[in-house]
Structure formats: C-alpha cells, structure tokens
Amino acid sequence: YREAWDRDKTQISIPSDTPVMLQSKVNALNISNKHYQKAWDEAKAKSYDMRADAIPIKHAKASRDIASEYKYKETHEKQKGHYIGCRTAQEDPKLSWAARAMLLQNDRIYRKAYHDSKAQIHIPVDAMSVQAAKECQTLVSDVDYRHYLHQWTCLPDQNDVIHARKAYDLQSDNVYKSDLEWLRGIGWLTEGSVDVVKAKKAQELLNERLYRTRPDEMKFTSITDAPDIVQAK
C-alpha cells in the first residue's frame, strides 16, 4: 500500500526560491539560538578596557564601603577612649546617670535599707495602736469569751446555785425518767388502755349493724283501713 509513496517521496524536488522555502529559512534564522547569540559571542571575543576611575566602578566601591560593617564602625572604634571634658567615668553625666539608674533598678540594693532596718523597730508597749490591738484581741479571743461553769467558785447555799441545781435536775434526762425505771421488765396488756377504749368506741359508732335496725326484725301490725293500703288494694 505504501510502496509507491515511499518510492516517490525521495524524488520530490522543490525550488529554493519559492515563498514557502524562503519563509522556512527566515523562521529557522529567528528560532536559531546560535544566530540569536551571535552578536554577544562576537562581543565576548573582543577585549574591553574599563578604567578604575569609571563612574560604575566608583559607585560600586562607595556602595561596598557603606554596606561594610567594618567601615560603618571605623569612626566609632577610633573615638573609643577619647572622651573630652571628663577625666573619670564618675564625672561623665551620662555614665553617672546610667549608674544611678542601674542602682535603682537593682532589687537587692533597693531593698537593702528595708532589710537592715526591719529588725531594729522598737514600739512602746503603751502606744495607742498596741493598746487597741490588745483590746481587740481580748474581744475576739475565744478563751476570754467563754467562762466554763467549773471554773467559777460559788457558795453551795446561794439561792442562784440552788435554783440552778433544781433546773438542772428538771432538765436532766436521767432525773426526768427516773420514775419509769421501776416499769422496766414489767409486762403490760393493752386491754383497758385509753387508745384501746377509744378504738372500741369508734368501732361501735361506725358499726352499721348497731346503727340501723333491719325491717324484718321489727314487730309491727299494719292498719288495714289506712288510705295507702286501701289505694293499693
């Protein structure tokens, strides 16, 4: 199937001056990397002369000096130790101010006077604040507020002591229940008690048999000439 085409495609010849061929040559030149860099390669092959005092060189050197940390600190390093007007650090106002600020910020030195004087405080025993504190402590003290009865000393024949004893005896549970001690262990029947009698009376009142009388148990004789009997007949 392809034999005729494979044989004919090697025998095709196109003139070189046709528009298609010219356009393809121009396109090949445009996309050629070698042709694109030809001028640059020729410029690189030639030698160049750049003087040291050229403007770009001076600009690069100035930028390098400005950006250099050594050049930036060169003036400061030269001025170290050459203070004018102050022979010592204590005479320099800035150094003195910095030292004073450091002392104020130091916590140990800030509290040194307090720690030295806190153990040397002397308060008179009769000072108003001390007396007020003592009175307040006496008022709020639980020991002074409470006075237990066994701490008091009273005569046994005083009226208030006798009255207190009688009140204690009345309030005492042992004395209150002492009259019931003889009842312990004694059997007791509920028959005849108040609650039992009250329950029986209530049962009798609520008993339907005792409250109502059945008609068949009543003995009576009907009147034969009563109007309702006559009417019924």
Automatic annotation (TrEMBL):
Q: Which UniProt keywords apply?
A: Actin-binding, Repeat
**One MF term in GO for this entry?**
actin filament binding
Q: Which Pfam families match?
A: Nebulin (PF00880)
Choose one Gene Ontology CC annotation of this protein and give it: Z disc
InterPro entries for this protein? NEBU/NEBL (IPR055297), Nebulin-like (IPR013998), Nebulin_repeat (IPR000900)
What are its GO biological-process terms? cardiac muscle thin filament assembly
Protein's recorded name: NEBU protein
